[in-house]
Amino acid sequence: LSARLSKKFEVSAAPEIRLNENYSQLQSAFADLGGQYKISKQFFVNFTQRIGTRVNDNFFEMRNRSQLGIGYKFEFNHFDLVLQTRYQALISSARSETDPDFKSTVRSKIQVKYNGIKKLQFTGSYEVFHNATQYSGMSWDNWRAAAQIERKYKKINFFSLGYIIQRDLSSRVPEMEFIISLGYKRDLDWRKNKKTESDPANTVLPE
């Protein structure tokens, strides 16, 4: 769910569940609560709080992390280019984390959106995760590439299909993950115009 409280401020709530490879068991469940403020037409800041749980050895482990970011958006014809840097802080976790979404890290992301086809939006992004706690400096821990197609239905409903590839560079044996995502979003502000439909915060891809 997302709602525009003013021309510059938007809030959102995004629950999510993730299943294991065979889709028969729950891997994790969480919810993102956040807001975004537009400083100008190009610059914006946002904050997200994620609270959830993950299944490890048949036990549910609570997780909690905060995220603060700043970004720049450039529009050209039907394309949007978004550059964003976010600081992510792990607040609580039951054990040492390897999941990049639940580690204290700095995330740098480039995203391209195309909205030249009516009711459809195509998104591609590439993101790197920097280990800001290492004495060696901003070394890379992970990278993530993602692609998504989103279909608008009756102005306020959005259905999406995405594919994500990510790699863990911090383990002794780096691992690749391949993820298929299905998403649904409902916009509570049906009055907004076409230009605001492609705001950087409006995405169903995992963050």
Structure description:
With 207 residues, the protein is mainly beta. It has strands spanning 2-4, 9-19, 26-38, 43-56, 59-76, 79-92, 105-114, 120-131, 139-153, 157-168, 175-186. The chain has an 11-stranded antiparallel β-sheet, with no helix packed on it.
Radius of gyration: 17 Å
* Secondary structure category: mainly beta
First-to-last CA distance = 15 Å
Spans with pLDDT under 50 lasting ≥5 residues?
193-198
Please state how the strands of the largest beta sheet are arranged side by side.
1-2-3-4-5-6-7-8-9-10-11
Total E-strand runs: 11
H and E string: EEEEEEEEEEE
Percent helix: under 10%
Mean pLDDT: 82
Largest sheet: 11 strands, antiparallel
* Overall morphology: globular
- Tally of helical segments: 0
Share of residues in strands? over 45%
